[in-house]
Amino acid sequence: MRSLISTLPGRVGTVLAVALLVAWSLGPIYWSLVTSLTPPLNLLGAPSLWPQQITFEHYAKLFGATSMSQGNAVQSVWPQFSAALANSLITSILATVVTVAIAAFGAYAFVRLEFPGRDLLFVAVVATLAIPAYTVMIPLYRLMISLKLIDTYTGITLIYVSAFLPLALWLMRSVYQAMPISLEEAAWLDGAGRIYTLVYIVLPLAAPGLIASAILTFLNAWGQFMVPLVFSPTLATKPLTVLIPEFVTRNYIDFGLMNASGILAIIPPVLLVLFLNRYLVSGLMAGATK
Amino acid sequence: MATVDIRRLVKRYGAEEVIHGIDLSIRDGEFISLIGASGCGKSTLLRMIAGLEDISGGTIAIDGREVNDVAPKNRDIAMVFQNYALYPHLSVADNMGFSLKLRDVPKAEIVRAVREAADLLGLTPYLDRMPKALSGGQRQRVAMGRAIVRKPRVFLFDEPLSNLDAKLRVQMRTEIKALQRRLGTTSIYVTHDQIEAMTMSDRIVILNGGRVEQIGAPLDVYDRPANLFVATFIGSPAMNLIKATARRDGDRLFAETDDGLRLPLADHPVTEGAPVTVGVRPEHLNFVSGDTAGALPFAIDLIEPTGHETHVFGRFGRHQVVVIHSERVAETSSAFVAIAPGGVHLFDRATGQRIERS
What we know:
The complex is a heterodimer of chains A (about 290) and B (about 350). Chain A has about 290 residues and is an all-alpha fold. Helices cover about 70% and strands about 5% of the residues of chain A. In chain A, strands 1-2 form a two-stranded antiparallel ribbon. In chain A, α4 runs antiparallel to α10 and α8 (about 180-190) packs across α9. Chain A is globular. Chain A starts with a helix and ends in a 6-residue tail after the last helix. Chain B is of the alpha+beta class. Chain B has two domains: about 5-230, P-loop containing nucleotide triphosphate hydrolases (Rossmann fold); about 235-350, CATH 2.40.50.140. The interface of A and B includes residues 182 and 185 of A.
């Protein structure tokens, strides 16, 4: 009886804290979902927690050939939306693949190869994480113009890789540091070279770390706004994050459409994390315990 | 199968020298143990033979060919690691066949070689298992199997049994020895366990601080330790050491302690007044009656029965001594003890070196 009384406030506290955290993180998404299902006219009244009337017209605007807007038949935004979705997927996947590949090999070199200035170089690479992206935006823009890489997948991918590689390198380095070197030594004595050992012995064991790096990089790339806003001026490479705010026009802010596309835009990263999240945790924990 | 010749081998980490010019010739098919306390350089020496550590000076030759600059994979050496180092993502069969696969051995040949090794080690039922589904002893056997399938010229063992429990260790010790006899492969075995070294080896190498203290057959080392370090390192409980001075009374030679205790010496070539250390193994001290010639009064402090023998801790005057008695000992506070004939080891106290009887 006594223990129940003494733990009760604790439990209530925990429940409250969890509820607050869930509301904090899921609240905006729920709000967005409700908005995307509410008819435009109802959006102008007092906000409600539950839509009085459910409509799919915003989604229809995204997917249909034509749709009704303010009583007029208008062209749907599907061509733009699908192009931007493809751009988001392509740039994020490219950035992820390149970043993880470089981190997998680069971090191994930082851990197992001895070369002068190794640790200094690593610190320098990681230190770039502390530089705000805005400070390099203008020089980077000049650089990209002279390389003719504005509005190209190559350009965007290069920028993403340079931005996300330090974190992936850092993570992979701790993954490799946690691995016993005797496995590699055994492989060398068995007759394997360095690259063979890395690819067939080390990388399979580092899979959780690789997946964690991949998820982090993908999520980072998917959510990018500033970089594509500057470097992806047209639908050739423009991703969803930049397209969606453009549904704000001079005369009308299409809240419903924006929120409907927002809801669709979070589906790929949500799926990714749902399926791979157990690797995310074990990968991030690498090196934390022996 | 091969000989291994180590000449003036030196290892430095930066300015610090950890191995100081070791010479060692290992014969074809020999089982040799490197033994010493942690930090004595035994593992470093083994890793230098494997090619996992650079050589700072001197040479290592396998079968007469210098291998200083030969990569580990080209030395044709197999190593069993302390933590087994099994590839966790490969099955037992793939672990054992890994080296053959790298050498482009035909698949059927690999299967045959793996099966043969598995039969030898009793691993056949486990070939499809992953390492994490095996017990410690089975993992140890897989590590052995991985070493033997490719028939290397030399086996290296880096404390392979230290992660096993005591009972399994004894069993694997016998298995490894029997396997080595059968295969006849030159083997170098690093251990800190003197029982392993004594029971398994043709010769043992006692290392201390990066130097060889003694090389010899196990019983030779036990019976004639070259110096005080070896005398105390090999044998458990350790040899009793008593500081004394050499004295001569007519033609009788003895060592006299500073509290007047006289220990008889044989025909040791020592000069009168030389500072010496007398060593006596605990099993060479026998309980006798007080009127026996050479009987020394022994004050008993503690009696430890181990079952098959009894360790009796006590003192000769001020000198701590342990006696091993093959029979059970009744609780008592004092007794007389005599040194068995030939049971005295004499060491020069200044150099620590053994003084052999003339």
